[in-house]
Design a protein that fits this description.
The complex is a heterodimer. Chain A is mainly α. Chain A has a four-stranded antiparallel beta sheet. In chain A, strand 2 and strand 3 form a beta hairpin. In chain A, helix 2 runs parallel beside helix 19 and helix 3 crosses helix 14. Chain A is elongated, with a radius of gyration of 28 Å. In chain B, strand 2 and strand 3 form a beta hairpin. In chain B, helix 3 packs antiparallel against helix 4. The chains are: A mainly alpha, B alpha+beta. Chains A and B meet through helix 2 and helix 19 of A and helix 1 and helix 2 of B.
């Protein structure tokens, strides 16, 4: 080899080594999948995988499956978790005397969203109270009964209008603390498919929130509580609301109080609205349905009904639908967790439990303080709910992945068989 | 497989297992006598032969084969030969093949004892052994 070529080769080799050393890791092949860069958000990552496997249609179908097949089953597992959380050192004791005589608690401590101020027979109320035998309905009935006892499972509820308080006491006091809580949890109805659908739609379009006349302070308080719960769901160490987050909450509060709700579905699709009648239509059409496709199509219908700018929607239909269903599914996860952490029945159980533990002295606590002081309880409930939800979504994605993997595996098996035959042929062709 | 559904790493492992294309049975074993007799009769690897086959199969991908319209050899085909040559060079000169020989291999040995008596020994190997090979 001539010296010139050797020098060229050496310089080229140095350049190659420099290039290899200085090359960065390969860029993200999917820059549009933001879940790849956010380490902790599991739901968005699962939804991105579904989209990669089978397009946005899969997310729509997943919503149908979640509402028709998942919601009816989650309650059983969550009740087991709740029973564990309400088991204490004194659970084998009989119910204490002061509780047998009744504990009093402010309605506002139990009903943090002011649901009990809404008449179930109203158009809004019919969406929020889907059944007359739920705990919430019985609470409302006791308010109407004003002074007369209303029963729910082993619990007697009595409302006093003069103090705006409920009195709770057991109907059958000859039972242990553990059995009492178990019986109330078993009687409880934490998840109702219709109510969950209403709450999900409200979280995106603000239809229910906008139509209520709540004070600025009430709205801000509710948003702060939901923000803290979101931090628990996201496994954040601190529940403190940062100044920037508080500013955003104030802006949202202003908007809600002024009847404005920005529903941003992406691609410039904002200010989309849904009214109560349209939500009623959705609920009537999906109520009791076991057909996931029918349910998901009804959600597509309500999306199309809500659109304020149809030209923009037609141009960006797939992206807007994709965003809409992602918002719906993420909202569904939060509403499920809220049902087991912030609902009136949970607030009641926490109140009774806290009072019994506090030497049988009724002890009313603020929900915001409860989120901090009973962090372990809320963490456990949130974790269990997320496990169940993510397990369902994982199994759904796995089914779709297996449909892809099976044909490829068959091809690989066939390839290996062909390779084997060719190896045998290559070994025998010169022998024979 | 036990998956922690609220742990992102566990979920990723779960999906990777689903997509690992693993099949239950290992590849079919080639009979040992066939390897013994057949392997030494193989022709060995040839960069020119491999590159030619790859270039030949370009038509399967709908790509043109042969000289460019200008009459020059296609750089893509030159690159193909270079690629194969370098890969084979690394395999011939740098690769290490290590064979693990298990215990329990039957052996039979015969010889003559000190007093001239024929001795035959039957047994099995008791220790692990290692062998080395090259690629040709």
């Amino acid at each position: 080899m001539s010296i010139i070529k050797e020098k060229k080769d050496l310089i080229t080799k140095v350049g190659v080594i420099t290039s290899i050393l200085n090359s960065n890791e390969l860029d993200n092949n999917n820059p549009n999948l933001s879940s790849i860069n956010t380490s902790k958000n599991i739901s968005n990552f699962l939804l991105d995988i579904i989209t990669t496997v089978n397009g946005s249609e899969s997310i729509k179908n997943l919503l149908g499956e979640l509402i028709t097949n998942f919601l009816s089953d989650i309650e059983i597992d969550m009740k087991l978790e709740l029973k564990k959380q309400f088991t204490n050192y004194n659970s084998s004791n009989t119910l204490p005397n002061n509780f047998i005589n009744g504990y009093n608690v402010d309605v506002s401590s139990i009903d943090i969203k002011n649901k009990l101020k809404i008449d179930p027979s109203s158009s809004k109320g019919s969406l929020l109270y889907s059944d007359t035998n739920t705990f919430d309905s019985r609470l409302y009935d006791s308010i109407v009964a004003d002074g007369n006892d209303i029963d729910f499972g082993n619990l007697k509820i009595n409302y006093d209008n003069s103090t705006d308080q409920f009195k709770f006491k057991p109907i059958n006091s000859a039972t242990t603390i553990n059995d009492f809580f178990s019986s109330i949890i078993d009687s409880g109805d934490f998840i109702n498919e219709n109510e969950v659908s209403v709450k999900i739609i409200n979280s995106i379009f603000g239809t229910i929130d906008n139509s209520e006349t709540k004070s600025y302070e009430q709205v801000l308080k509710e948003l702060k509580i939901e923000k803290k719960l979101q931090k628990i769901v996201d496994n954040q160490d601190s529940l403190d609301i940062k100044p920037s987050e508080f500013t955003q909450l104030e802006i949202t509060t202003d908007n809600i109080v002024n009847g404005v709700y920005y529903s941003d579905l992406g691609c410039g699709s904002i200010n989309n609205k849904i009214n109560i009648d349209q939500i009623s239509t959705l609920i009537n059409n999906i109520s009791g349905s076991t057909d996931p496709l029918k349910v998901s199509n009804e959600y597509v219908n309500i999306l199309e009904t809500s659109i304020s700018n149809t030209d923009n929607y037609n141009e960006n239909k797939d992206a807007i639908e994709d965003n809409f269903f992602r918002l719906i599914i993420n909202s569904l996860i939060i509403e499920i967790i809220k049902s087991f952490t912030l609902s009136p029945i949970i607030r009641t159980l926490l109140f009774i439990n806290g009072s019994i533990i506090n030497n049988d002295t009724q002890t009313q606590t603020d929900v915001s303080d409860d989120l901090e002081n009973k962090r372990v309880l809320f963490d456990c409930i949130s974790k269990q709910a997320k496990e169940l939800i993510f397990q369902f979504i994982f199994e759904y994605v796995k089914k779709e992945l297996i449909k892809l993997v099976i044909p490829v595996t068959k091809k690989i098996l066939k390839e290996k068989n062909t390779q084997y035959i060719n190896i045998i042929k290559s070994l025998t062709s010169n022998i024979i | 497989m036990a998956i922690e559904y609220s742990n992102i790493n566990s979920l990723i492992d779960g999906f990777n297992k689903v997509m690992s294309f693993q099949t239950k049975n290992s590849p079919n074993n080639v009979p040992t006598p066939l390897i013994l007799f057949g392997a030494k009769n193989r022709s060995g690897l040839s960069a020119i032969e491999i590159a030619s086959n790859i270039i030949q199969r370009k038509k399967d991908a709908g790509l043109p084969i042969g000289a460019l319209p200008s009459g020059n050899i296609s750089p893509d085909e030159i690159m193909e030969r270079i690629r194969v040559e370098e890969i084979l060079k690394a395999l011939f000169e740098k690769s290490i093949i290590t064979v693990a020989i298990p215990t329990g291999i039957p052996l039979q040995a015969s010889g003559i004892s000190a007093d001239g008596t024929p001795v035959t020994v039957y047994g099995r190997t008791v220790g692990l052994a290692r062998g080395y090979g090259i690629i040709q």
